[in-house]
Design brief:
This protein is α/β, with parallel strands linked by helices. Helix content is 55%, strand content 19%. The protein is built from seven helices and seven strands, in the order ββββαβαβααβααα. The protein has a seven-stranded mixed beta sheet, with helices on both faces. The radius of gyration is 34 Å and the shape is elongated.
């Protein structure tokens, strides 16, 4: 696992959500220069970190809504890194957790050189990656469905063969051969055949009595 170890004047840790983001900025001495919960608005975020943008590193945990923030930092030439969610949880996981604490811990990991880095995919490649991910999911789901369907057909065929043997055995006990019309029907509907055979058996027994 790679960790971000470069030194900066300011370290910005963000606990990012779909509509809100908690921003924490630390200096090299570890003093909190900014700690605020704001809306996920690009203009508001740039206004908030404007006093520190001369040498600041922005770090955020890898969640589903980080694309816009990475693109914004790239357009404003701000350093941006993405944190590996699983390793970050293992490093700073604790019983007491909220957005304010998480943003401070992310900034502290950046400052201390313990921030686990994930790959921040370029914007021009993300559509292809998302398409491939979706294709893998659909292909896996289709394979499971086909495999289950084939297994179900095999079980149905096994039950049909077993029923044919049982039906022939029952009918031949009374010295009555199994009639020909039974066999073509057995290939299409097991439920229909079972009812037809059993009704034919009962009719034969009742006639014999």
């Amino acid at each position: 696992m790679n960790f971000y170890t470069r030194q900066h004047k300011y370290y910005c840790g963000i606990d990012l959500h779909a509509r809100k983001m908690y921003v924490c900025v630390l200096n090299q001495q570890g003093d909190v220069k900014l700690h605020k919960n704001i809306d996920t608005d690009p203009a508001l975020f740039l206004e908030l970190i404007a006093p520190y943008q001369e040498d600041v590193i922005v770090g955020v945990e890898c969640v589903f809504c980080w694309y816009w923030l990475a693109d914004l930092c790239a357009s404003m030439q701000l350093s941006f890194i993405l944190g590996h969610a699983l390793y970050m949880r293992a490093i700073h996981g604790g019983k007491t957790k909220n957005d304010k604490i998480d943003s401070y811990k992310i900034a502290s990991l950046l400052k201390g050189g313990n921030f686990p880095v994930a790959d921040s995919y370029p914007a021009e490649w993300r559509a292809t990656r998302d398409l491939l991910r979706r294709r893998m999911y659909i292909a896996g789901s289709s394979g499971k469905w086909i495999h289950g369907h084939e297994n179900g057909l095999k079980k149905d065929m096994a039950r049909d063969r077993l029923f044919v043997v049982e039906a022939n055995t029952i009918l031949t006990r009374g010295h009555m051969p199994c009639p020909r019309p039974y066999f073509p029907c057995l290939q299409y509907s097991r439920c229909q055949i079972s009812i037809f055979n059993l009704s034919g058996q009962h009719d034969y027994i009742s006639k014999q009595k």
